[in-house]
Design a protein that fits this description.
Elements: H1 2-5, E1 8-15, H2 20-23, H3 37-54, E2 59-63, H4 67-80, E3 85-86, H5 103-106, H6 129-144, E4 150-155, H7 157-167, E5 187-192, E6 198-205
Parallel strand pairs: 1-4, 2-3, 2-4
Antiparallel strand pairs: 1-5, 5-6
Length: 220
């Protein structure tokens, strides 16, 4: 991954480590679960890799306020010696479900997919896919205004997906669920070429997780 360190202000997207909602069919991401023991180990693995790659560079760490992401960011910050900044707009897809609802109980609110997908809401009172796309673009634009040499964002699968889609110039009318899927504790990298073109330099890099096994979920 040396090449992206030479690029113009790389934006490194990290999906949080494995959370309890990734492995327990009763727990939904809206219940704000924390990391599992495997998730903590995954976070430490990505933190060690980032330290080797980024040592001596000025890194700004931005994190969702949700536990699974912020716990991952804290582990990374210990290696990079940079305090994570909470940005609530980096939170996962907003289901707007009651935190007391289990995943099976939430099924009564689930909706069928519609076309165009930008109008689809996974649950009755959730944000639409188009609203998620716009939120992803807005928060990425905001963070890019920082003076950080390298931007590191710790967030969630669905919004990382839409940040990449927005960055790559995919129009809201063309968005679909899970266009750029990412695994727990994976690394994806956005950057700008020497010609000013926005590019996706890395997607779902998990080379640091070769010794890990276990279930993973895209919708957490």
């Amino acid at each position: 991954m040396v090449e992206y360190l030479r690029s113009q202000r790389p934006i490194i997207l990290i999906r949080h480590g494995q959370s309890h909602s990734n492995i327990d069919p009763n727990i939904g991401g809206w219940q704000d679960p924390g990391l599992t023991l495997i998730g903590e180990k995954q976070a430490k693995a990505v933190a060690r890799r980032l330290k080797k790659l980024l040592e001596g560079r000025k890194v700004g760490i931005y994190s969702s306020h949700l536990r699974r992401a912020y716990e991952t960011a804290q582990i990374i910050s210990q290696e990079l010696d940079a305090e994570p900044k909470i940005e609530e707009s980096l939170q996962e897809y907003q289901t707007n479900l009651d935190s007391e609802l289990s995943r099976p109980e939430a099924e009564i609110y689930r909706l069928e997919r519609v076309n165009p997908a930008k109008n689809w809401r996974a649950y009755r009172y959730a944000e639409s896919l188009g609203e998620l796309y716009h939120r992803a673009g807005e928060v990425l634009t905001l963070i890019m205004q920082s003076g950080d040499e390298i931007i590191l964002i710790v967030s969630h699968g669905w919004i990382i997906d839409k940040m990449i889609a927005w960055w790559m110039g995919i129009k809201v009318n063309d968005v679909r669920p899970n266009m750029f899927t990412t695994a727990n504790a994976s690394i994806s990298v956005l950057t700008i070429s020497e010609f000013g073109e926005r590019i996706l330099l890395k997607l779902n890099d998990t080379a640091h997780l070769t010794h890990f096994t276990g279930q993973d979920s895209i919708l957490d």
